[in-house]
Amino acid sequence: QVQLVESGGGLVHTGDSLRLSCAASERPSSTYAMAWFRQAPGKEQEFVAAISWSGGSTFYGDSVRGRFIISIDDAKNIMYLQMNKIDPEDAAVYLCATSLDVFRWSNAWYRSVAYDYWGQGTQVTVSS
Question: Which of 2, 4, 27, 38 gives 92 a disulfide partner, CB atoms 3.0 to 4.6 angstroms apart?
């Protein structure tokens, strides 16, 4: 079973930058994908960004496109989320997830059901 551990969350101010990391305990599969979702109190879980194991395919949610950058270090089994121009609406618990089947993932990358394993999350708090 793949274990995912997020890190890098914390308290930031509006306009700041922050980098989140998600480390997998092992290579999830030969062709896997990973993603970030976020959950804010009282709101539905929201897709943030996703990436294939090669980094060749990336997707972003509308609210973060142009501000956040997702990347992956396949050799280290680590995924990153560079968060720029953070605003109060970005405050949430950020969860990373991995899909073991990139072909299944390619049709549903924005849906939580496309992912097989999840981390516990890292909190991002934004002070205005």
Answer: 38
